[in-house]
Write the C-alpha cells for this entry.
Amino acid sequence: MATIQVSRGTRDILPSEVSYWQLIERSAREILDRAGVSEIRTPIFEQTELFARGMGEATDVVSKEMYSFTDRGDRGLTLRPEGTAGVVRSLIENNLMAQGGVQRLWYVGPMFRYERPQAGRQRQFHQLGLEMLGSADPRADVEAIAIATDILKAIGLKDLTFDLNSIGDTTDRAQFREALVAYLTPYKSDLDPDSQDRLTRNPLRILDSKDKNTQKILDSAPSILDHLSDASKARFDRVQQLLADLSIACQVNPRLVRGLDYYSHTVFEIQSADLGAQATVCAGGRYDGLVTELGGPETPAIGWAMGLERLVILLQKLGNDTSVTPVDFYVISKGVVAESQALKLVQQLRQAGFKAELDLSGSAFGKQFKRADRSAAAACLILGDAEAEKGTAQLKWLASGDQSELVQSELASHFEAWRAVLQG
Ligand code: ATP
Ligand code: MG
C-alpha cells in the first residue's frame, strides 16, 4: 500500500533530536521558575476573531498565513499562529488582572502559520514565550529581556546579537508615520510590491522589508528615534542604562519596528549569524494597548517569543551531545518462568529509581548479550532456567566483566551499593 508522508511544513521530532528539545525546555523551565514566572496552557485553536483583533488584520500572519476553518457547528476557528493573544484572552476571561500587581506568565507549544517552508521556517513550529502584564516600568522591559538572555545562555548559545529599538507612544508613531509616508511616496514605484501595498495600509512595516532596492531607499528615510517625545526618549535611555547595568550588550536598530498600534516603546530581536536567512531566535516588545484591544482593562505589558526549531538548529550545530544516557541494567532472560521473573525484577529496579531495559526478543542468550553490549548498559542481569529454579539471577558488570549470583528476593539489599557504583 502507498505510504503517507508528513504534511508539508511539518516534521517529526525523532528520538535522536528530542534530547535537544528537552534540554531547552528544562533550562527554560528552571530559569522561568527562579524568576517567579508561572506556566499557562491555552487551547491550540481559538476563535478567528481573537487573532484578527489580537494581531491586526494588516499583518501578514492574519492576512495570509492563518490556518482558519469552520467547524461542524459553523464556528470560525483558527489554529493559533502565536501565543500572546490566547494568553491575554485567558487573563481577561479569568479575571486574573483583578488581583492587581504584575502577572508573569510563560507558555510553550506548537504554533501554525501557512508560510513557505525553509530551513528554520515551518508551518507547524514551536514557540516558548513570556508575557509580563501589569507594569509600565522600564525595569519590567529589562527583566523580561534578562530572562530571555539567561535562557539562551543556559542552553549554551553564544555569539547572539541583540537589536533594540523604541517605537515610542501612539503620538510619536503617528508623527513618524506621516514623515515616513511623505519620504517614501515619491519613491513608490521603486518599492517592492509588498511595500507599495503597505504604504497605505501599514507603512511602518516597510522598514522590515528584505528587498534590496527598498532597503536602499530606506537608508535615507527618517528615523523613529528623531520622532520620540522627551518622555519616550527618557524612557528608552533608562531601558538602555538598565541593560548596561546588567551587562546585556545591545545595539540600537532604528529600523526595528512592530507595525501595530498597540505596540509601544521597547521592541527587540535576538539573532544568530549561524542561521542564514531565518536568523531571529527571539523577538519581543511592549504591547501596552493589546489588553484593551481585546476588551480587558488598561494593562501595560511586555513579552517575547522564541522559535524553538531555530534554537535546536543552533544546538545541533554546536554539536553538544545531549543524547540520552544509557540504561543502568539490561535484563535478559530465557524460558517461561525466567521471563516472568525478569519482568518483575525490571519493575523493582525501575521503582527503586534505576534505569532498566528488558530484552523482549526471546532470542538465544548470545543475541541478547550482544544487544546488552550495544545498549551500553552498566550491568546485565541474566535469568535462565537454572536461575529461575533457584530464584536467583546472574549480575554482570559489563565494563569489568565481573559476575556474581544474587538472590531475587534480596534484590533490594544491593540497591545502595549499586547506586554508589553507578554514580561513581
Ligand atoms: P520572521 O521574521 O522570521 O518571519 P516573525 O516576525 O514572523 O519572524 P514572530 O511572530 O515575532 O516572528 O515570532 C517569534 C519567533 O518565532 C521568531 O523570531 C522565530 O524564531 C519563530 N518563528 C516565527 N515563525 C516561524 C516559523 N514559521 N517557523 C519557525 N519559527 C518561526
Ligand atoms: Mg513571519
User: Anything to note?
Assistant: The mean pLDDT is 94. The two ends are 52 Å apart (CA to CA). Residues 176 and 221 are 11 Å apart (CA to CA).
